[in-house]
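ok, trying the design again with the full structure, not the truncated one.
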């Protein structure tokens, strides 16, 4: 697979991850795997929340049902990687990146516009995860984890695309594209102001 896929041809992230992140991540792989496990768990929970909040959106319910199953399978796979290395699932920790990004989901707005924001924020979380998985795939020495993160990189790129397409099911494409552009700039600013940490995927 060339470097141009999937992160350069699909993702539109405006600011690349600080190169220092992958170096500190590899030295703290237990912490990264624990945080990654919780990220997958939260991704599944987010999909369930969308189903609960928008049960009348048939296409959304169908896609989120599949996504929840896939994210939960990823959670189980990360648990297996932890167990294989003699690690256990540690405490959950706040995800400052997701917390900051979620603040930009507009409240008290048109229902479909709120849904669009939820979907696009989820898309950006998937995009950033994809970018980080690519860094791990390309740079860590552990060959088993290289393969693992390559597979997840491809999966997260697909989720990013799915979330954006789903947003365009319920709002005009030009409005979705304009809002995505705004959120990409916001996301870059959040990344710019977060210090790389040895115990966080984001």
């Amino acid at each position: 697979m060339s470097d141009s896929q999937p992160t350069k041809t699909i993702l539109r992230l405006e600011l690349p991850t600080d190169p220092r992140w992958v170096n500190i991540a590899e030295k703290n792989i237990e912490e990264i795997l624990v945080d990654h496990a919780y990220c997958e768990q939260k991704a599944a929970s987010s999909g369930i929340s969308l189903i609960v909040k928008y049960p009348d959106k048939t296409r959304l319910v169908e896609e989120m049902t599949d996504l929840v199953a896939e994210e939960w399978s990823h959670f189980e796979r990360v648990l297996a990687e932890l167990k294989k290395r003699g690690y256990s699932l540690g405490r959950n920790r706040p995800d400052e990146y997701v917390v900051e990004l979620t603040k930009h989901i507009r409240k008290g707005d048109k229902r479909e516009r709120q849904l669009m924001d939820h979907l696009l924020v989820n898309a950006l979380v998937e995009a950033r995860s994809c970018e980080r998985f690519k860094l791990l795939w390309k740079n860590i020495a552990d060959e088993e984890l290289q393969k693992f993160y390559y597979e997840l990189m491809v999966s997260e790129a697909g989720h990013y695309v799915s979330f954006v397409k789903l947003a365009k099911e319920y709002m005009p494409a030009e409005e979705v594209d304009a809002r995505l552009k705004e959120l990409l700039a916001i996301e870059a600013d959040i990344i710019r102001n977060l210090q790389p940490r040895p115990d966080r995927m984001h």
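Keeping the full-length input from now on. Confidence is low (pLDDT under 50) at residues 1-8.
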